[in-house]
Design a protein that fits this description.
Length: about 400
């Protein structure tokens, strides 16, 4: 049995919490159409998208949460969806200016906007950049026409290639490409060809996800024929090797970045940092700096209902204090996604628990070579990292 040091003092814990980064997530819930695999809160855009009304509702939503974060600065902003690139550059500029008018945003803040190649326009990308967006995340998913059709995407191969070119031409030296693998009828050769095409576009970051059939999606109700597990495993292993050869470091289960270019916003999630969430269906997590209490916030999902409740925080969303005993698993579920794992002191600061609160599961995982410890760091082993769900199941309440 391995023994671990007891947790730091309450004063040390609170000092660490006061250094927590603060992020802002903004959800724009509309898409041209709903993809059959998507379980995000997204809704088909009808003519006459209410951009101005929605921006006003977002800023009122933010105003209603300012008391949670008095005196703190925003370090990252992520505008996700849905398809935020459906909105005009003028609307995004009004949104970001409104945020800055209400909260201090650090000068070097990372500000990301998700974009769909099917809605990409050169002028619009330049407008996003002028508005202060400095990172794009482009949802490619595949470059193969048959795969794009199977996924219900509105773009083709040429639009995908052009979107990456337009991002660079608009002044984005930092952009991510989203790719999926394990697609219907996909061969390993097709998956690796997609990866090569993406690498050749020279992004700073690649997100590589395995297609999963999530509940409440068309694919879950009408499952397509997916590759066998052995084929998916071969794709994953070959992709990891190819990305490493090309200088992309896998710092999270599905995230690969060139040196110095990880997604700072997502890192804050995985390091159990704080974030405000505004917009239909948005989630947030805020820590009380005096007590260490962690509160989850949620917003009403349907955009029409969200707009109708604008200005009334009681109707627009809800909040819930996370029980102390649940923090253990919530922390691990995020922190173990990172290749570097987590610091023992950070676990205690976030949960209020000593590291031996993870016993006996922690020792058992180390003995089974799923986890390893290096000084004050605990992380998944190479084997455990590829089977993270198995590791986390050991710690379920």
């Amino acid at each position: 049995m391995k023994h671990f040091a007891k947790h730091p003092s309450e004063t040390d814990n609170l000092l660490m919490l006061q250094c927590l980064p603060l992020s802002l997530y903004i959800h724009i819930p509309w898409c041209v159409r709903k993809c059959p695999y998507c379980d995000f809160n997204s809704h088909r855009a009808e003519p006459g998208l209410p951009e101005a009304d929605y921006i006003k509702a977002l800023l009122q939503d933010l105003e209603g949460q300012l008391d949670w974060v008095a005196g703190r600065e925003i370090e990252t902003i992520f505008i996700g969806g849905g398809t935020p690139s459906l909105f005009s550059a003028e609307s995004i500029n009004a949104l970001l200016q409104g945020v800055r008018d209400r909260l201090p945003v650090v000068p070097a803040a990372e500000i990301t906007l998700e974009a769909n190649p099917g809605t990409a326009e050169s002028d619009k990308f330049r407008g996003f950049r002028q508005a202060g967006v400095n990172r794009l995340s482009i949802g490619i998913q595949s470059f193969q026409p048959e795969q794009l059709k199977a996924l219900g995407r509105i773009h083709g191969r040429e639009e995908a290639l052009r979107a990456a070119e337009m991002a660079r031409e608009a002044g984005f030296d930092n952009f991510n490409l989203d790719l999926m693998f394990g697609l219907p009828q996909q061969t390993p050769e097709q998956a690796l060809a997609d990866l090569k095409t993406a690498i050749d576009l020279n992004p700073t970051h690649l997100s590589l996800y395995q297609l999963t059939l999530e509940p409440n999606t068309v694919f879950h109700k009408y499952p397509p024929a997916l590759p066998e597990d052995d084929s998916i495993w071969a794709i994953q292993q070959a992709a990891q090797a190819r990305l490493a050869e090309q200088g992309f470091q896998q710092y999270e289960v599905s995230a690969y970045a060139r040196s110095g270019w990880p997604c700072r916003h997502n890192l804050n999630y995985w390091q159990f940092g704080d974030y405000l969430g505004i917009g239909a269906g948005a989630h947030g997590k805020i820590t009380d700096m005096e007590t260490g209490t962690v509160t989850r916030t949620t917003r009403i999902k349907h955009p029409q209902h969200y707009l109708q409740a604008s200005g009334d925080p009681a109707r627009q969303g809800a909040c819930e204090v996370i029980p102390r005993e649940a923090l253990r698993f919530e922390f691990l579920m995020n922190a173990l996604r990172l290749r570097q794992g987590f610091d023992v002191k950070l676990f205690t600061a976030h949960t209020g628990l000593p590291i031996n609160a993870l016993e006996p599961e922690l020792s058992a995982c180390m003995e089974d070579q799923l986890l390893e410890r290096d000084g004050q760091k605990i992380r998944c082993s190479a084997h455990g990292f590829n089977f993270l769900d198995t590791v986390l199941q050991r710690f379920l309440p």
